[in-house]
Amino acid sequence: MGTQEKSASLKSGHPRREFLQKAGAGIFGLTLVPRYVLGGAGYTAPSGLLNVAMIGTGGQGMQNLRNLLEEKDVRVAAIADVTEWADYSAFYHKVPGGRKPGFDRVSERYANDPATKDFPACKVYADFRRMLETEKGIDAVVVSTPDHTHTVAAMAAMRSGRHVYVEKPLARTIREVRLLTETAARAGVVTQMGHQGHGDEGIRLTREWIRDGAIGAVREVHSWTRGANRASCTGLPEGEFPIPEGLDWNLWLGPAKTRPYHPDYTPVGWRHFWDFGTGRIGDMGCHNMDPAFFALDLRYPEWVQARCAWGAERSKRPFVSTVLYQFPEENGRPALKMTWTEGLMPARPDELEPGRDLTGDGNGILFIGDKGKLMCPGWAGNPRLIPESRMKEYRIPPKTIPRVGGIYRDWIDACKSGGKASSDFSYSGPLTEVILMGVIAMRTEEKLYWDGPAMKAVNFPNADPYVTPEYCNGWTL
Question: Which residues of the chain have pLDDT under 50?
Fold first, then answer.
């Protein structure tokens, strides 16, 4: 297993070729650490500054990086990514990703601000393990890698005493999620899952309104993401392709089974494959189903079942699917049925006015109560009672839940104060486990009666291999 590593300081604006030439010795085994990378003689970080390292600067990693660079009390001190440069122009992020674009963005941002122009140069690595071992001044880590390497990166950070922010879903499998949750509790570090809407206003309004009785007792929920999986219609990647310059393919695979490089896997196609990703439910379910867990205090369901339309290959996520969850009556809340649909939209509510669509542009959630219905757009957006006449009649209750200023600010403040972030792993861990039960239901297409604490389908032992991952290439949990 290669551990190619780079710790070279770079100046913003170098073309890709010059970047490789100047740092080449560091990439291929020799570590270059110019004196000014360490901050120069007598450099002292400003008081109250949170030193953050990025693990993964691909599409979402670059989005996280942009947001952190806007926070005045954060310094992005180091970057680790297995790719030197990758093209995301065909993806919704629309910008290049990797070590070089990440370094350039940090360097440009800090050089153009008098308050940060004397910051030491951001350090750059291919292997996050070497970064965590070398950069002793790192306080906190943001993990934005593909799903299959979330756990190894976050575990390494927490075990070294660093706070962590991990992109959704927390991990690829339920066993990994449970390990992250338990390790966070033992380590005493601040944690946060990166489902951005959880730090915003909408999800708090949803809980306050439902708790206020706006629609009565909730007995049914629908959540969805529109857009069928066209990639399911093709088979497994075939053919021989050269590994792109600047990509450490072995590091990208991490604990996954060894296979030849193929452009269908990276930079953007990995989510379609169960070996690397968790499909649309892992991607968008953590956003769009979150309001139900937050507003109704959901825990583990009694059972879960899925129905799918498959494409050419079952090692990829399905073309379209529906997942049904049945939650028991609990703490005064009635039993609840929740339906997740991907690739399809739910039935149109009778209360929705002609010409008006379900909010959210193809992503959202609908609560059905004894006294009415409430819908929210995707990413846990602002709620709306339907029909609109009901919304206009409703007397909005006082705000009782603390506002946190967004998912990043919430995590940063908790890191600095020793407090608890709003989507720390004690909340987002169980949420992710339930979402990943949906993945197992898709892959088995059995009605799974679930023992949540034991992480087990009690009626179907064949589901067990999907709970616990197989780690390869010397990687371990």
Answer: 1-45
